[in-house]
Amino acid sequence: MPDHRPLDEKIDELRRLQEAMLQRVTGQFEEAALALLERDTERAEKVRQSDDEIDALELRIDNLCERILALHTPVAVDLRLILTAVKINTDLERIGDHAKNLAKSTAPLADWEAFLEQADLRDLARTVRDILTGACEAFLEEDPDRARAVIERDEEANQLYNNIFDTTARLSREHPEGSEALIYLVTAAKALERIGDHAKNIAESTVFLEEGKDIRHGGLDEEAAGFSGDLDGDAIPPSQLAGK
Amino acid sequence: MPPSVAADDAPSEQQDAPPPPPATEATRREPDTAPEQDRERAQTPKVKTENLSFWYDEGDTQALDDITMAIQPNEVTAFIGPSGCGKSTLLRCFNRMNDLVQGTQMEGRVLVDGEDIYQKADPIMVRRRVGMVFQKPNPFPKSIRQNILWGARINGFTGDEDALVERSLRQAAIWDEVNDRLDASAYGLSGGQQQRLCIARALAVRPDVILMDEPTSALDPQAAAKVEETITELKKRYTIVIVTHNMQQASRISDATAFMYLGWLVEMSHTEKLFTRPEHQRTEDYITGRFG
Predict the structure, then answer these.
(1) Mean predicted lDDT score pLDDT of chain B
(2) Number of neighbouring beta carbons within 10 Å of residue A13
(3) What own/partner pairs with CB < 8 Å and gap ≥ 24 does B221-227 have?
(4) pLDDT at A178 over 70
(5) Does residue A180 carry a pLDDT above 90?
(6) What is the interface pTM, i.e. ipTM, of the complex?
(7) CATH label of the domain that carries residue A183
(8) Which of B43, B262, B288 to mutate to test the interface with A (most CBs of A within 10 A)?
(9) What is the mean pLDDT of residues A173-180?
(10) Residues of chain B numbered 235-254 and touching chain A (CB < 8 Å)
(11) Minimal CA separation from B178 to chain A, in Å
(12) Can you say whether the dihedral through the CA atoms of A159, A162, A166, A167 is positive or negative?
């Protein structure tokens, strides 16, 4: 059945699907982090089993974006909305995967509480949760200032991960009998750090969506991209060009 | 059948009715913010307007309000905006086509290559330099060859006519399709071919600027694509200004785009910028279809 709904209705549906996806993914992350830190293997198993809903939402969002692009040829803010929807969709799906990796590390670390405490995994999990929650809220509330604040916190998560890596190396020398658990520990820390990176991507996409500015990698060279004039030679003063 | 070229004595000129008045004084509202033209360009503008205002009906209906803009050479500039916003009126100011409409008034200046075309220039010479192609293909009821040569002969052309015909048809990207039937009637051509013939006819008088008023709106998508390809090729030699309601066409083929509303120039910038990051909410509303 052809979908002849107007663009605004499809965009409303897209926003609803995105909100559902954000809730599922952040919920899955919270559960996975809680399971790991509380060494709750039952909770972890539920996280490992709950990926299907996120995968289904990912497919629906991508399909809706494809149909909007094909049938409505969006421009300006509508085009940015679709571009960011596709990118954020991928980021969220990857966050879901990393949450599963956290869950997988729960059982191997269940008997090594001291490792979790010494490595300060809780602090990293808390920081990443704040970044992820902040990015999702900035997106839903269309708040580029909040998104920028979130982006600045990513470095904090990276530093905490580096600390955990160093601690793990030390623990592996001191406790060779726990080497397998320590591999899971660093894997879990890496998953948290990557979740922070994807959350940062969501925040960057939010700035692009709201302001039309691509701030990744130091920003776009606007002149090279054709967004400013050729300034060789005698430029015409803007005062001559501007109307009233 | 009137010609599509605004040549010096083309019979179509009197037959082209003015566009509908854009707005009454009662419906006019100030734009949210001042119009923008953010492009600082290296070249001297080919066409420039300074504080251009225009009225129909003996001054009762204002169609253009204080338009200042610059059209760069060897670029395609698109005018977009809702019906009645003044884009066709503005286009016709560029070659004094509005002189032919009774009861019009104009203030401000229109400069072509720095010369005020309303002061010293002969309107016939202006229209030779600034040709025009209209919405519906309108070849003369003559052969393809005669369509090309008509304007040139009237302008006193005494050179190699075969070469002129071939050059004009090649530049309009229709030579390969018609070179074996130059003496056949132009009416035997398809709509898209007729429109490219009209473009070739405009080129035959060697204009600098070509104005196109919705040149593909009467064509099927394939013929429109051919004309668009032709326009893209022509900008290497000519300056082109096109009025279009097809925003995808504007975004495909133009280098600069001007959005007009109720006689105002709301925003003019690089096409990529206007269609991705317009400065004005009204522009964004229009290009995203939320206007009104």
Answers:
(1) 86
(2) 16
(3) B222/B192, B223/B190, B223/B191, B223/B192, B223/B193, B223/B195, B224/B192, B224/B249, B226/B173, B226/B192, B226/B196, B227/B192, B227/B195, B227/B196, B227/B199
(4) yes
(5) yes
(6) 0.71
(7) 1.20.58.220
(8) B288
(9) 93
(10) 247-248, 251
(11) 35
(12) positive
The structure tokens listed for A44 are 């972890």
- CB within 8 Å of chain A, chain B residues 37-96: 37-45, 51, 66-70
CA angle B159, B162, B165 (to 5 degrees): 100
Number of domains in chain A: 1
Q: At what angle do helices A7-38 and A52-72 cross, to 10 degrees?
A: 160
Within-domain flag for A237: no
Give CA separation, A76 vs A16, A57, B38, B251, B259, in Å: 21, 25, 17, 12, 14
Closest CA to B213 of B137, B106, B286, B143: B137
pLDDT at A19 over 90: yes
Domains of chain B: 13-23+37-140+207-287 (3.40.50.300)
In 10 A of CB B162, how many CB atoms? 11
Contacts of B247 in chain A (CB under 8 A): 75
Helix (H) / strand (E) containing B270: strand B264-270
Contact B138, B1 (CB under 8 A): yes
Asked if residue A243 is part of any domain, the answer here is no
| B276 vs A: CB within 8 A | yes
In this structure, is residue A221 part of a structural domain? no
Greater pLDDT, B169 or A241: B169
Tell me which of B276, B283, B285 to substitute to probe the interface with A (most A C-beta atoms closer than 10 Å). B276
Given an 8 Å threshold on Cβ–Cβ distance, is B275 in contact with A226? Answer: no
Judge: B251–A75 Cβ closer than 8 Å, yes or no. Answer: yes
User: So what's the pLDDT on residue B222?
Assistant: 87
Residues 6+ apart with CB under 8 A from A176: none
Q: State which residues form the domain around A129.
A: 7-216
Residue A43 lies in a domain: yes
Across the interface, of B40, B264, B265, the residue whose CB is closest to A231 is: B40
| Residue B41 clears pLDDT 80, i.e. is over it | no
Q: Are strands B239-243 and B209-213 parallel, antiparallel or unpaired?
A: parallel
Size of interface A-B (CB pairs under 8 A): 90
- Is there a contact between A241 and B287 if contact means CB atoms under 8 Å apart? no
Compare all CA atoms of chain B with the CA of A237 and give the residue at the minimum distance.
Answer: B40
Of B35, B41, B273, the CB nearest to A242: B35
Alpha-helix runs per DSSP H in B104-253: 123-129, 144-154, 161-171, 175-178, 191-204, 221-234, 247-253
C-beta of residue B266 within 8 angstroms of C-beta of residue B31: yes
CA–CA min distance A205, chain B (Å): 15
For residue B288, the chain A residues in CB contact (below 8 A) are: 74-78
Mean pLDDT computed over B168-173: 92
- Mean pLDDT across A106-126: 92
